[in-house]
Amino acid sequence: MLYGILGIFALILAVPKAGNAYTSPGPDGITWQVVAAALMGSLFYSRRLISWIRSVLTSGNRCAAGFLFASCYALVVTPVVYTLFETHPLPRFSDLFLVGIVLTAYLFTWHGAVYLLAIATMVSAWVLPPDGSFAVGQPEDWYRIFSFTALAIFLIVLVHRLKTRSGAAVAQRHSEVAATTSMAAGD
């Protein structure tokens, strides 16, 4: 019940009130869509590469590897966000960080994802007007930051719970197979 109420609350925060989210279908908007589609499409085809990177990074501590991944992701995405959206932030400019937050929570632990969320929130406050300061002046900008934070926290919790459930299901299957094997060996 509590998760349902929190989910509905997060959904309400994530949906903007005003319909001022129009971008012209000119070259800038089309270029942005092509880049976003290419990045999202490449995620589906790069599973082998991601599993290799994950095996290399997680040979030690998973939490430390998550912080390292989040830091590298922030170092790459922050200049991109600031360069692309310096003068005119689009309504969903934090989506680049949202992709990294979900990847960090999925590939590593939730700790690194929360760390990346803190970095993304600071970058959002820096990019939003007045540009170059952490002073957020407009109520729409405060709403944008809070809705992004609520959505990111919801996704971190969701990914963590799904990973926990799938891990428990795998452990249960292993114990069932072991029990079946021991029973077959005893016959």
Computed CA radius of gyration, to the nearest angstrom: 20 Å
Shape: globular
**Average residue-wise pLDDT:** 76
Strand content: under 5%
Order of helices and strands: HHHHHHH
Ends: how far apart?
A: 47 Å
Overall SS class: mainly alpha
Specify the helix fraction band: over 70%
Sheet with most strands: none
- Catalogue the unreliable spans: none
- Tally of strands: 0
In DSSP terms (H or I, runs of 4 or more residues), the helix count works out at 7
What does this structure look like?
The mean pLDDT is 76. The N and C termini lie far apart (47 Å). The chain has 187 residues and is mostly helical. It has a domain at 85-168. It is 78% helix and 0% strand. It has helices at 2-14, 27-45, 47-57, 62-85, 95-107, 110-127, 139-186.
Give the topology.
Elements: H1 2-14, H2 27-45, H3 47-57, H4 62-85, H5 95-107, H6 110-127, H7 139-186
Brief overview, please?
By secondary structure, the protein is mostly helical. The protein has helices at residues 2-14, 27-45, 47-57, 62-85, 95-107, 110-127, 139-186.
Key terms:
187 residues, mainly alpha, globular
